[in-house]
Specification:
single chain; 259 residues; 15 strands; 23% strand
Length: 259
């Protein structure tokens, strides 16, 4: 197992459990305790965990894994969701993409669509996510618009009034929204209020809003509200979604696509 893969696994375990002992982690990953101690020390230097005697704990009470180390939970589901979302985009449209693992997968699916291999432009992509802009910027047929703002290390997203200034001047055909929670009553939500504010602006500037969320996000809510359920046109989720939950979204006027 490479160091990067090992760090991803360690951080994922740490988020799930809140605390990890060296011996416990060594057994889980089938490596030596000395290797785990070294990993913990290096991750602590990057302020990604807090070292304790004999182990480590999560960094802060609202710990969120930086995107570059986040192992995508429900990875196969997210990939299927991403492809289905990308298929909803028409050539030549202006597309808004928020940050996050699912939105990143959507960007990758758009990049390899054969019918988007040429055009002037084939797509206009508006994003506040630096990693998405970086991946798509090498596609000359895509026009990439990046909002201004201050970068969040956890998600590579730009937030703040500088981003507001750009988004207030443009319109989009479709906004693809990654969320922490989506509930028929409370709408789409995120953990961070600054990210939620930018995502809200993306929704307001788009003709239609698509939420890309695996079934673990449905029926849940997080701290910061992005938009009400009435602003969402389409939900794309996986087939593990509870039928009663998806029925509630449909009753709220949201088209539900399961993949």
């Amino acid at each position: 197992m490479s160091r990067d893969a090992r760090w991803k696994a360690l951080l994922e375990l740490l988020v799930e459990r809140g605390r990890l002992d060296v011996e416990e982690a060594a057994g889980e990953l089938e490596v030596s305790a000395a290797t785990i101690r070294r990993d913990f020390d290096q991750l602590a230097e990057q302020q990604m965990l807090v070292r304790t005697r004999g182990g480590a704990v999560v960094h802060g009470v609202s710990y969120e894994l930086p995107l570059r180390y986040k192992t995508a939970r429900n990875a196969s589901e997210k990939q299927r969701i991403a492809k289905a979302v990308a298929d909803l985009v028409e050539p030549g449209e202006a597309v808004g993409l928020t940050g996050g693992t699912t939105s990143t997968e959507v960007a990758r699916c758009l990049a390899v669509r054969p019918d988007l291999s040429s055009g002037t432009p084939a797509l206009t992509v508006v994003t506040n996510a630096l990693n998405i802009a970086n991946e798509l910027a090498v596609r000359p047929q895509f026009k990439i618009v990046v909002t201004g703002g201050v970068a969040r290390a956890q998600s590579y997203e730009l937030t703040g009034p500088l981003a507001d200034g750009v988004l207030s001047q443009i319109t989009m055909d479709i906004a693809v929204l990654g969320v922490v929670g989506l509930d028929p009553e409370h709408g789409a939500t995120a953990d961070d209020e600054a990210e939620a504010a930018i995502n809200r602006l993306l929704c307001e500037r788009a003709s239609r809003v698509v939420v890309a969320a695996d079934s673990s996000k449905l029926g849940k809510r997080a701290f910061a509200r992005i938009c009400g359920a009435d602003r969402v046109d389409t939900l794309v989720t996986d087939t593990a979604a509870d039928p009663a939950t998806t029925a509630r979204f449909e009753e709220a006027g949201i088209r539900v696509v399961t993949v």
